[in-house]
Specification:
Elements lengths: L13 E2 L1 E13 H11 L7 E8 L2 E8 L2 H5 L8 E10 L14 E5 L2 E11 L2 H10 L9 H11 L5 H11 L2 E9 L2 E6 L8 E5 L2 E5 L2 H5 L5 E4 L4 E6 L2 E6 L8 E2 H7 L5 E2 L2 E2 H18 L7 E4 L5 H11 L7 E3 L12 H11 E3 L1 H4 L3 E6 L6 H12 L4 E6 L12 E2 L13 H8 L3 E4 L2 H6 L7 E2 L1 H4 L11
Parallel strand pairs: 15-25, 18-21, 21-22, 22-24
Antiparallel strand pairs: 1-23, 2-5, 2-11, 3-4, 3-5, 6-7, 7-8, 8-9, 9-13, 10-11, 10-12, 13-14, 16-17, 19-20
The chain binds iron/sulfur cluster (SF4).
């Protein structure tokens, strides 16, 4: 594994990426068309973004560090006729917020010109890279996406799809890919299906996207999931499906439903918002089962706790209110060197509404707890606003293990749940109580619980990984 956790003030695990791909039988303004769904996927990565599209016989790419509106806004001003393009938003890893790691990656090799965008993480990167280095490969980035291109170009004398299939068979871990090769657009999802990828059509146009919210913005209503281990090949002759690799048991990332995906997306066969509401309701039932009922109202930590808090309130029959408001213009807060600056960063983002909090016993619902530093500040904020009691509820189980499949989770020793019990966490963050949604109850919230990965909660990884910490 080549990535390390990136240090930020953020309490949440970080998502690595979102992808989009568009094919149109007639020329349209592809760069402009890519802008809107990428904008809709901005929550999946805010560090860099880019697009690649066919212009005549060549692939043109533009990428930079920054948000979609600032980097790609230029494409709203001019008509650039094309039939095929892909795009990417990226969340960077430690030492990785560099332009050379931005995507799509474009390579000119013995397979022709290829553009590739990747969501996920190849978990056997080190083994493959060591072999390629030994054979003289030169890498320009630290991204595992480049590895796929290197591997592919080494396989000579074979049909392109055959070479691609063989490459994918050697890649372990999580990958949802979109690729341009010649006049062909290809969408691929790994055999476990860790990361989502959707495919839809509208008026002859074919679209791949990490989430359905990105299809919605193009008004693509006819769509389906790319199946685990499926490659969809789109060209002038239509769309064909190719299966590759050994059929595996599905291991879709449950954290997509808990936190990463946008609540208006449908993912893994369900509405993300409704799945989160079920998780909140399950938290309320767990409280009822343990005899806890001493609260006046339910508050979300916005925006990540909104849906679960609503589910909790409805199940518990308690009022739901917005006791914290969020300033959406602060962006992602980079590591602040002192505790005082870290507190200021949270105060810039979240603001208590004193008039509804004063004298209240509140259930404060969020999705997950990583280090506990932000939660401690949030509890302090609402205590300052006059709450009498704070009961923190998390709609994820305790995170105890790193992720090797495209999510940035701190090392084991940095995870608060490996250091403290929920009671000790409550004391640490100055809450009256803290409890997590236990894994069996989380499974009950899913119609097909056996199809999900829970490895960051229970350490049961679907593929072999090397744990270093
Ligand atoms: S380890 Fe956790 S974050 Fe990573 S894929 Fe599995 S459920 Fe998702």
């Amino acid at each position: 594994m080549i990535y390390k956790h990136v240090e930020t003030n953020d309490e949440k695990p970080g998502h690595f990426c979102g992808v989009i791909g568009i094919y149109s039988p007639a020329e349209i303004n592809i760069p402009e068309k890519l802008f809107f769904p990428l904008f809709a996927l901005q929550h999946r990565g805010q560090e860099s973004c880019g697009i690649a599209y066919r212009k005549g016989e060549r692939i043109v790419a533009y990428k930079d560090l920054g948000m979609v509106s600032s980097v790609l806004g230029r494409y709203l001003k001019e008509d650039r006729p094309s039939r095929i393009g892909i795009g990417h938003v990226r969340y960077s890893t430690s030492g990785g917020n560099k332009l050379e790691n931005a995507q799509p990656m474009v390579a000119n090799c013995n397979k022709g010109e290829i553009a590739l965008a990747h969501n996920g993480n190849i978990s056997n990167t080190q083994d493959i890279k060591a072999g390629l280095f030994a054979e003289g490969s030169i890498f320009q980035s630290t991204s595992d996406t480049e590895l796929i291109l290197h591997y592919l170009s080494r396989l000579q004398g074979r049909d392109f799809i055959e070479a691609l299939t063989e490459t994918l068979i050697h890649m372990e871990g999580a990958y949802s890919l979109v690729m341009i090769r010649g006049e062909t657009l290809i969408g691929i999802r790994d055999p476990f299906g860790f990361r989502p990828l959707y495919y839809g059509t509208k008026d002859g146009m074919s679209v791949f996207a990490s989430e359905t919210c990105a299809l919605d913005i193009l008004q693509v209503t006819d769509y389906r999931s790319v199946e685990p281990g499926e490659m969809l090949i789109v060209d002038s002759s239509g769309t064909r499906s190719v299966r590759f690799g050994q059929p595996r048991e599905k291991r879709q990332c449950v954290f997509e439903l808990i936190y990463f995906a946008r609540p208006d997306s449908r993912m893994f066969g369900q509405s993300v918002h409704l799945a989160r509401k079920r998780m909140g309701a399950a938290l309320a039932r767990a409280d009822r089962d343990r005899g806890f009922s001493e609260a006046d109202m339910v508050l979300p930590v916005p925006d990540s706790g909104n849906s679960a808090a609503l589910g909790y309130a409805q199940e518990a029959g308690l009022p739901f209110d917005l006791g914290l408001t969020r300033n959406h213009y602060t962006g992602r807060s980079f590591i602040m060197p002192t505790p005082g600056q870290r507190e200021l960063a949270v105060r810039m983002k979240l603001h208590p509404v004193r008039d509804i909090l004063q004298g209240k016993r509140v259930v404060l619902v969020d999705d997950s707890l990583v280090r506990g530093t932000t939660s401690r500040i949030i509890v302090k904020l609402i205590r300052e606003a006059g709450v009498k009691e704070v009961h923190v509820r998390l709609s994820a189980p305790e995170i105890k293990w790193p992720c090797f499949f495209g999510i940035d989770v701190p090392t084991r020793k940095e995870l608060i749940s490996n250091q403290l019990s929920p009671q000790e966490i409550a004391r640490h963050i100055d809450a009256d109580s803290v409890s997590f949604l236990e894994e069996p109850r989380l499974r009950e919230c899913l119609p097909d619980p056996e199809n999900f990965c829970y490895a960051c909660f229970n350490g049961k990884y679907p593929v072999k990984v090397s744990l270093n910490d």
